[in-house]
Design goal:
Residues 219-241 are annotated as: Disordered. Belongs to the PspA/Vipp/IM30 family. Helices cover 90% and strands 0% of the residues. It is mainly α. The chain has a domain at 2-160: Helix Hairpins, CATH 1.10.287. Helix 2 (25-80) packs antiparallel against helix 3 (84-160). The longest helix has 77 residues, at 84-160. The two termini are 61 Å apart.
């Protein structure tokens, strides 16, 4: 069972690693900023090119308008000199240049509108990039915090279940068993010592009782100063002897 759990854990870890590599928030954000900056560079280049084209068209318009005006002045001069044919030719050329100038003027108006739109888009993209840069660090910090929390939760989950927890439970039971054995040994050792001291104390009590009994019998004697049995023994009573022998046998047997 433990081998299967470890295998499942390895598989899950590999899958998570692949997902993290494919969807790493930090890398995605960095790449997004880079892509936006690349788009901004291209947009700036487009704006610069459109402005350059507009400037060139304006110069062409100015030149065509100036030439048309010049041919109009020449037509006036030809009429003043009485040369109507020359004036007509001058007006014809003036009309051609004026038409070119009018076309260029319309083209300039269109280019101006395009340039203004490109500039608006460029400013909007610059604003978005600035906002993205300001939020990037915050998002990266949040992503790292989420990853750390996920790893901690996975560790807690793996420790709380399966063979790992069972091993801790077995060790806990083993420690409790060792503690119980130690307490039992200590208790048995204490009881043995207590019994020895109790025996000694009991012996002291018996000696005290024996001394008291001797003193009592001595005081009850006829004043000869001798305990029974120290002088010539009187004739023994058979009943007393039997009772004494029975008591001795019981004491020796115990």
């Amino acid at each position: 069972m433990g081998l299967i759990e470890r295998a499942i854990r390895v598989i899950r870890s590999n899958i998570s690693s692949l997902i993290d590599k494919a969807e790493d928030p930090e890398k995605v954000l960095e790449q997004t900023i880079m892509d936006m900056q690349e788009d901004l560079i291209q947009l700036r280049q487009g704006v610069a090119q459109a402005i350059a084209t507009q400037k060139r068209t304006e110069r062409q318009y100015s030149q065509s308008q100036s030439t048309a005006n010049e041919w109009y002045r020449r037509a006036e001069l030809a009429l003043q000199k009485g040369d109507e044919s020359l004036a007509r030719e001058a007006l014809t050329r003036r009309k051609s240049y004026q038409q070119t100038a009018d076309d260029l003027k319309a083209q300039i108006d269109q280019q101006t509108e395009i340039v203004n739109k490109l500039k608006q888009n460029m400013r909007a993209l610059e604003s978005k990039i600035a906002e993205a840069k300001s939020k990037k660090d915050l998002y990266i910090a949040r992503a790292r915090s989420a990853k750390a929390s996920e790893k901690i939760n996975e560790m807690l989950g793996s420790v709380g279940t399966g063979s790992s927890m069972a091993a801790f439970e077995r060790m806990e039971e083993k420690v409790m068993e060792l503690e119980a054995r130690s307490e039992a040994i200590a208790e048995l050792g204490t009881d043995d010592i207590d019994r020895q001291f109790a025996a000694l104390e009991a012996g002291d009590d018996v000696d005290t009782d024996l001394a008291d009994l001797k003193a009592k019998l001595l005081s009850e004697s006829s004043g000869g100063g001798q305990l029974p049995g120290s002088a010539a023994k009187p004739k023994a009573d058979p009943d007393v002897e039997r009772e004494f022998n029975r008591l001795r046998s019981e004491m020796e047997g115990s």
